[in-house]
Amino acid sequence: MSSNNAAVVEIAQTAGKFTSSIVLQADNKYIDVKSILGLFTTLVSNKGYELHVHGPDADEAKAAMKEVFAKHGLKVEVVEE
C-alpha cells in the first residue's frame, strides 16, 4: 500500500484545486476524491475506476484527474453524463 501514498496525496491535492464534485466509483463504493482517508481505503492499482465529475470547472477537473491517475499507473474512466 505504501507505494500508493504519493498517488493518494497527489490525487487528493489535485482534486482540491477544483470546486467541482469529484467522486470515484470503485465497485459499489463512492468516494470523495478530496478525502485522503477515503482514497487510502479504496485505491489499489490493479483495479479500474470510474470518475464522476460535476461542477463549474468539470472539464478542467476531468483533464487534471486523468493526468494524475495516469501518472501513477491507475486506470480511470471519466464518466460523461
UniProtKB/TrEMBL annotation:
This is HPr domain-containing protein. It holds the Pfam family PTS-HPr. Residues 10-70 form the HPr domain. Coiled coil: none annotated. InterPro entries: HPr-like, HPr-like_sf. SUPFAM superfamilies: HPr-like. It comes from the Bacteria.
